[in-house]
Design a protein that fits this description.
This protein has 19 helices and 15 strands. The chain has 482 residues and is of the alpha/beta class. An eight-stranded parallel β-barrel has the order 2-3-4-5-6-8-11-12, surrounded by four helices. A three-stranded mixed sheet has the order 7-9-10. Strands 1-15 form a two-stranded antiparallel sheet. Helix 6 runs parallel beside helix 8 and helix 13 packs across helix 17. The structure holds beta-D-fucopyranose. The site of beta-D-fucopyranose has 12 residues, from loops.
């Protein structure tokens, strides 16, 4: 006999008062295990993880030789962040990392993506390495491995050492980054198998040097802003080469990019082709350049005289082959085929489009499927990871110490359902890292936006698992979503 579906099963149970009593008295997880739903299973060895970043969680900004990053300077500048919030203390993870590894362990994750603060390792950006800074990350890696959690290391998550002259406006910064990347990979690759060069190009280039929303808060004209973009992708490519030259052989190298994800308005052949075309052109300064080792004609034409100045050999470096692509996936753009020269148009979002607590975080769970599919079809990477996905909610800590973040569970469940579709269609998706392990310093939004699976009381640094943590633990233990 065919197993009853989950819905039939529920109906049968609901038929008897005794069964209703049984449900009410069972803990949530036990009930989930009883259900005979046809689960959406992920591939064997799928990596389940969480993500964080140094400046958002560590605090201890003046300890053990660390010097300021641009985010220290920026957040201490009046008017730049929500209520003047800074990362001075953040989650104090610098001191509490063992407790945070326990949180990971309780979730059952097999991977943890965290970033290294460049300014702890080379406090002036270049020069002599700072042993105490390195020791800290050695301790974190040891603690993870002791708990059977694989470290996935991001080398740059926006906290550029303040001391570097000109920041990303200077080409020397690309070279300094490669030196730092080579050094770290030499130190850690005996125990760290995966490195991400850079996290989200647009956030430390355009948002930092063009709109001024992020550190260092500049508003440069297009030609200069495009040059910053070029130095960023160049830094990535130089770092890939430096890691290959210094790390243990077999070390896996990629990046964590928030490529713009184009969802076809309708799933027809033409609309899907439009989404592919938009994927290339819409990501031309960053992911397209990295994957193809060239800027598209469209990008160069659009920028005209403001196009970046490229030195001989740059594009080949930028296009250095990768072992995997990491995608940070949040918000969709919807695209429609049309008869314009580009062949597509990006739709305007209606004002009623649903979103989460952050004003930029629109909800379109199919975004994660199309992120994987578009990138796979356009560039055929060997492997893909979702390196971030998650959401902010208006979490409330109840008097009895619970956070019932049903909206976050809804968001995550729907995204994982669509990610499962990508896995089941055979795209090479190897893992998923949820943003974030715990509430943290959300950049210009300070502590006003909470993305964590664990609620952080910033006065006491107490971490409390939310309902979503319980839900994620269940997903991981079953390697499946309902
Ligand atoms: C991403 C960032 C990450 C976090 C999430 C919410 O853009 O990489 O640090 O702020 O958004």
């Amino acid at each position: 006999m065919k197993k009853p579906t989950r819905r039939q099963f529920g109906k049968t149970l609901a038929g008897t008062a005794a069964a209703a009593y049984a449900i009410a008295s069972l803990p949530r997880i036990a009930f989930a295990q009883m259900a005979t739903a046809e689960l959406l299973r992920f591939p064997p060895n799928f990596v389940w993880g969480c993500s964080t970043a140094a400046y958002q969680i560590e605090g201890a900004v003046n300890e053990d030789g660390r010097k300021p990053s641009v985010w220290d300077t920026f957040s201490h500048t009046p008017g730049k962040t929500f209520q003047g919030d800074t990362g001075d203390v953040a989650d104090d993870s610098y001191h509490r990392y063992k407790e945070d590894v326990k949180l990971l362990k309780n979730l059952g994750v097999t991977g943890y993506r965290f970033s290294i603060a460049w300014a702890r390792i080379f406090p002036d950006g270049t020069g002599q390495p700072n042993q105490k800074g390195l020791d800290y990350y050695q301790r974190v890696v040891d603690e993870l491995l002791k708990n059977n959690i694989s470290p996935y290391v991001t080398l740059f998550h926006w906290d550029l050492p303040q001391a570097l002259p000109g920041g990303w406006q200077s080409r020397d910064t690309s070279k300094a980054f490669a030196d730092y990347a080579g050094f770290i990979s030499k130190q850690l690759s005996d125990r760290v198998g995966h490195f991400f060069t850079i996290n989200e190009f647009t956030c430390f280039t355009d948002l930092s040097y063009k709109t001024g929303k992020f550190a260092p808060g500049l508003k440069l004209p297009d030609a200069q802003a495009n040059q910053v973009r070029h130095h960023a992708v160049l830094a990535h490519g130089m770092a890939v080469q430096a890691i290959r030259a210094n790390a243990k052989s077999g070390t896996q190298i990629g990046l964590a990019e928030n490529a713009t994800v184009y969802v076809p308005v309708i799933e027809t052949h033409d609309q899907i082709a439009a989404a592919r075309a938009a994927t290339r052109e819409g990501n031309a300064p960053f992911l397209t350049a990295v994957m193809e080792g060239k800027y598209t004609d469209g990008y160069l034409q659009r920028e005209g005289a403001n196009a970046p100045k490229v030195e001989p050999g740059d594009m080949k470096i930028i296009g250095s082959p990768l072992d995997f692509v990491g995608l940070n996936v949040y918000t969709p753009e919807y695209v429609r085929a049309d008869s314009s020269p580009a062949g597509y148009v990006v739709e305007k979002r209606p004002s009623s489009f649903p979103r989460m607590a952050s004003d930029w975080l629109y909800i379109g769970p199919e975004v994660i499927y199309w992120a994987v599919r578009n990138v796979s079809e356009v560039w055929k990477p060997r492997a893909l990871y979702i390196t971030e996905n998650g959401c902010s909610s208006d979490d409330v800590l109840t008097a009895d110490g619970h956070i019932e973040d049903t909206d976050r569970v809804m968001y995550l469940r729907n995204h994982l359902t669509h990610l499962h579709r990508a896995a089941s269609e055979g795209y090479p998706i190897k893992g998923y890292f949820l943003w974030s392990l715990l509430d943290n310093f959300e950049w210009a939004d300070g502590y006003s936006k909470r993305f964590g699976l664990h609620y952080v009381d910033y006065k006491t640094q107490t971490r409390t698992p939310k309902l979503s943590a319980e839900w994620y633990r269940d997903v991981i233990s079953r390697n499946a979503v309902e």
